[in-house]
Amino acid sequence: MAGQQRVAVLGLGGMGRAMAGNILRAGLPTVVWNRSPDPARQLGEQGAEVADSPADAVRRADVVVTMVTDADAVVSIATDRGMLAAMPDGAIWAQMSTIGVAATEDLARLVAGQRPGVVLVDAPVAGSRGPAAQRKLVVLASGPDEIRDRVAPVFDAVGQRTVWVGPTGAGSRVKLANNLLLAFINEGIAESLALGRALGLDRAAVLGAMQGSPLVSSWAAEKLERIGRDDYSPQYTLSLALKDVNLALREVDVDRFPVAGSLATEWQRAVDRGLGAEDLTVVTRALEENLGA
């Protein structure tokens, strides 16, 4: 029964906190841990059990979710902080952070070598903080067919849709392709608005023409609305978006993807200017400022 699934969520940043809240609201017994205690304490006030360590969080868990910044953080939680050793045999580890292909393969080898009784599911998500809060993420899941029903209540709690894309590791590959498309859409918005400014057009006029266009997705429309208010508060930070582009480029011959390489170089300049903690749409502001706007 879904209500009997005990879930541990490790990592309560912008995404993990919203996901843990949705798992809790779905009626699943939920244990939470975070490096800084405040997000865990707030979820504790909503009914979650708060653990003192990753190892304590997972000791009786059926499904363990990790949602942290990068591969180093995942490995630190799994090994240095004792998560993997403390997981019960038969438990499922749903690794939902975006860490790239090579790091996911390293984790698969780690689990196979140290804890063959634990099932690793590679399941990054498409979506940012807003969709996470609204339970509108898309889970890009990959792993053994036989565990799909067991992990479904957790994935259903955090997302509007789960897409099973293949064996463990395929999810991370699809996520990199997905995020590269997102990066190009963001860059297209930024460069189009900057071009309008360079052509002497009023930004509001360009935004008005774009809103409602068949070329503009619901994601892009929401970003255009926020840009119109000069609201670059982070939903998906530029630093994280750049990390994901670089993860993709790390797996391929960069010379075959010159546009992605150029985008990464441009975004790195913006991060170096101190814009990395802003939403990735801040690229628009950076381009306009370069025009003297």
UniProtKB/TrEMBL annotation:
This is NAD(P)-dependent oxidoreductase. GO terms for molecular function: NAD binding; NADP binding; oxidoreductase activity. The active site is at K175. Gene3D superfamilies: N-(1-d-carboxylethyl)-l-norvaline Dehydrogenase, domain 2 (1.10.1040.10), NAD(P)-binding Rossmann-like Domain (3.40.50.720). PROSITE patterns: 3_HYDROXYISOBUT_DH. Pfam families: NAD_binding_11, NAD_binding_2. The keyword NAD applies. Belongs to the HIBADH-related family. PANTHER family: CYTOKINE-LIKE NUCLEAR FACTOR N-PAC, OXIDOREDUCTASE GLYR1-RELATED. Keywords: NAD, Oxidoreductase. InterPro entries: 3-OH-isobutyrate_DH-rel_CS (IPR002204), 6-PGluconate_DH-like_C_sf (IPR008927), 6PGD_dom2 (IPR013328), 6PGDH_NADP-bd (IPR006115), HIBADH-like_NADP-bd (IPR029154), HIBADH-related (IPR015815), HIBADH-related_NP60_sf (IPR051265), NAD(P)-bd_dom_sf (IPR036291).
